[in-house]
Write a structure and sequence with these properties.
- The protein has 475 residues and is mainly α.
- It is built from 20 helices and 2 strands.
- Strand 1 and strand 2 form a beta hairpin.
- The mean pLDDT is 86.
Length: 475
């Protein structure tokens, strides 16, 4: 083996180095300031990792098992930046007495999961992709169960592990069909020989079903609400944006690269899944009384919007999906940062009625959460409106009647989503209560996370250079 090929995998190699550094630092550091020192170290290393991904060049290694390009590197930058925000906002939770001794484990698991996502997006072979997916899923299960002595956390982790196991089995079964139909598992070789045979169609359906679980698409979404509610809030935020973004990008790349000859099959499959995901998630979100479950159904709906960019399989769709994930990261993490503050300082409460009159006691947090919710709903002039516009344009570019119909249904559902996002705004600003939440004094990490997220919500919708940068890498 030519080990020099590892130098073609610079982002992955530096992330492995980060994992080792954090592991050793956790062993060496002692004293009361260990948690804050580990947090500072991890944040600095992730900033360096973002710069590494930003300057990485297209490359390949190990006979085509590993293949990366500019579009993949852009997504790595976005996901690493999202991971940085998660680590910043997790600091108050990691400072809790029953969690502080596991801070090093948390950062190591986060880095391991991110490494799996890197490998998944940079794979050029189905088995490499599957290994990357499992590298991301297994540490994620540990993160979901991080508060293992809390009933909701253990229950959420159990459901996540069981569903992940079945979905991985279904995906691997689909890959075996693809191998039987094509005689190879290299993406380029499969695309050259695959046809509309029963084996290939079954392989596509099973593979799509397995990856649909990771993205929380209907009807593969049943684990989402319980897992989001049971997991620690920083983990829920990480699961909702970073993990979902990586899986959506990987699915898009494989559909466009490998299954391009079968586009007439997977496009109709996408039409059905997108309409079901957006519509059912919106209807269930209206009925929620627990905020993390509410955000779970919101994330299912957002996954449907993300997959709109895949319709048609165009380069514009790749750029639209990447931009949507970027905007979704900052908007969703702003909401989860506020939830984390309230949960940490408010005796663990995440009930929606606890936010009644929130503006009276915490006007700044209420305002920032409102901006994030407006962006998620797609209200101008925030970045969420432009991200939805680009995915609608990418889907409409396909030009068929069914594509226009799906876009129309998505537009109608945007109005529905606006209603249930405004329910939270109404609770914070209009509803009154005799026992509002107390005034919270946010720590520096929370302020930094909210500053980064709010700046992204505003700036990404104002400065077109961000989308131009993403589009330039894709085109």
């Amino acid at each position: 083996m030519d080990y020099s090929q590892f130098f073609n995998m610079i982002p992955e190699a530096t992330l492995v180095a980060i994992l080792i550094i954090v592991f050793l630092a956790d062993l060496i550091m002692k004293g009361e300031k260990k948690v804050s020192s580990l947090a500072l170290l991890m944040n600095v290393l992730l900033v360096v990792q973002t710069a590494v991904c930003l300057t990485a060049e297209p490359s390949s290694a190990f006979g085509g098992l590993y293949v990366t390009g500019d579009a993949v590197n852009v997504m790595k930058v976005i996901l690493t930046a999202g991971t940085l925000i998660v680590c910043i906002m997790a600091q108050p939770w990691l400072g809790r007495a029953d969690v502080s001794n596991k801070a090093g484990e948390f950062y190591a698991l986060v880095a391991s999961t991110l490494l799996g996502m890197y490998m998944m997006m940079s794979s050029g072979h189905f088995l490499m992709f599957f290994l990357g997916l499992e590298m991301a899923s297994v540490p994620m299960a540990c993160l979901v169960a991080f508060d293992k002595f809390r009933q909701n956390s253990a229950e959420g982790a159990a459901k996540f592990v069981l569903t992940a196991t079945f979905s991985s089995g279904i995906m691997l079964y689909g890959i075996s069909f693809i191998y039987a139909a094509a005689g190879t598992l290299y993406f380029d070789d499969v695309a050259a020989v695959i046809g509309n045979t029963p084996l290939a169609i079954m392989g596509l359906v099973f593979f799509f079903s397995g990856l649909g679980f990771k993205i929380s698409l209907v009807p593969f979404h049943f684990w989402t609400a319980d897992t989001y509610q049971g997991a620690p809030t920083p983990v829920t935020g990480y699961l909702s944006v970073v993990s979902k973004g990586a899986a959506a990008f990987a699915l898009m790349a494989i559909l466009m690269k490998v299954f391009a000859p079968m586009i007439e099959y997977w496009e109709y499959l996408l039409y059905i899944v997108i309409v079901l995901s957006i519509t059912i998630a919106n209807l269930f979100a209206i009925r929620q009384t627990e905020l993390k479950r509410f955000m779970a159904f919101s994330s299912i709906s957002q996954a449907g919007y993300i997959m709109l960019a895949v319709i048609g399989g165009s380069a514009m769709g790749v750029a639209a999906l990447s931009y949507y994930v970027l905007v979704y990261v900052v908007a969703n993490m702003a909401v989860f940062t506020v939830i984390n503050v309230v949960e940490t300082r408010g005796n663990g409460t995440t009930k929606m009625n606890c936010y009644d009159g929130f503006y009276q006691t915490n006007p700044k947090l209420a305002l920032l959460m409102t901006l994030a919710l407006f962006s998620l709903a797609g209200i101008p002039p925030f970045a969420g409106m432009f991200s939805k516009f680009f995915v609608f344009m990418a889907a409409a570019q396909q030009g068929s009647f069914w594509a226009y119909l799906v876009v129309f249904v998505a537009l109608i559902n945007t109005v529905v989503s606006l209603y249930y996002y405004l329910l939270i705004v109404k609770a914070m600003y209009i509803k009154n209560t005799d026992t509002p939440l107390p005034t919270f004094s946010s720590d520096c990490n929370t302020k930094l996370a909210l500053t980064l997220c709010t700046a992204g919500i505003v700036a990404f919708g104002v400065f077109s250079c961000v989308y131009d940068w993403i589009a330039g890498a894709v085109l």
